[in-house]
Design brief:
With 225 residues, this protein is mainly alpha-helical. It is 76% helix and 0% strand. Helix 3 runs antiparallel to helix 5, helix 5 runs antiparallel to helix 6 and helix 5 packs across helix 10. The longest helix is centred in the middle third of the chain and has 37 residues. It is elongated, with a radius of gyration of 25 Å. The N terminus is likely disordered.
Length: 225
């Protein structure tokens, strides 16, 4: 039973897992830099010992020698390669959690706006202005265009699951939810009505879906608990 509970705990990130992602990445970056510098010093030392600096050698000749001597048969992965793979996997996981966090908040905002048209009417101008304020004018314009339907009508089909269930439709819907969630994260401290909505309604919204504990853990900082 204890082993089962331990396995279950690994399936979902807890509140502390989300909170400490940044420090884990920092430690990996430090270790990668340390190992890279060590291996570069080692390579220079061995090249000098082998007489590399006493002769002229073209790049293509060097690559041919290297591939023939080192890549012609299977070898164990280097420490540096393993560390970089770990960092990439961890960063991908962190980005996925960040995207889910924003998508959840976007879904919450859509639900609030559909049930309370007056809230949608008051918040839409701020959403539009925030999207358009992106440092890249082109990106800002595209973001506004992506949410133009929602800004005009909270029940717009672009944020409703389509009957065809296509992958393209799901990706577009998720992208729109992430944009709205990013606005919630950026503006919840400065827009009083949004702050009040989050405080009063977000926990209840999360309890309506599956993976309640996981979703609350992802949004612990927003829930303030």
């Amino acid at each position: 039973m204890a082993a089962s509970a331990k396995t279950k705990g690994r399936e979902a990130p807890g509140p502390d897992d989300v909170h400490w992602d940044g420090e884990v990445l920092d430690r990996l970056d430090d270790e990668i830099e340390r190992v890279r510098e060590r291996e570069e010093r080692r390579l220079i030392r061995l090249a000098r010992k082998a007489g590399y600096f006493q002769v002229r050698i073209r790049n293509d000749e060097f690559l041919a020698i290297f591939k023939g001597a080192f890549l012609s048969e299977p070898r164990r992965r280097s420490t540096l390669d393993r560390l970089e793979a770990r960092r990439e996997a961890h960063y991908a996981g962190r980005r996925a959690r960040d995207a889910r966090r924003k998508a959840l908040l976007g879904g919450f905002l859509v639900a609030q706006c559909r049930h309370k048209p007056e809230v949608h009417a008051r918040l839409s101008p701020d959403i539009r202005n925030w999207l358009a304020s992106h440092r890249s004018v082109g990106v800002g314009t595209r973001n506004v265009e992506a949410l133009e339907g929602f800004l005009a009508d909270p029940a717009h089909v672009g944020l409703t699951a389509r009957s065809d269930g296509s992958e393209t439709a799901r990706r577009e819907r998720t992208h729109r939810l992430i944009l709205l969630g990013a606005w919630v994260l950026a503006r919840r401290g400065g827009v009083g009505e949004l702050r009040a909505l989050v405080a009063a309604e977000l926990a209840q919204f999360l309890e309506q879906g599956r993976r309640v504990a996981r979703n609350k853990a992802l949004l612990k900082g927003v829930l303030g608990k």
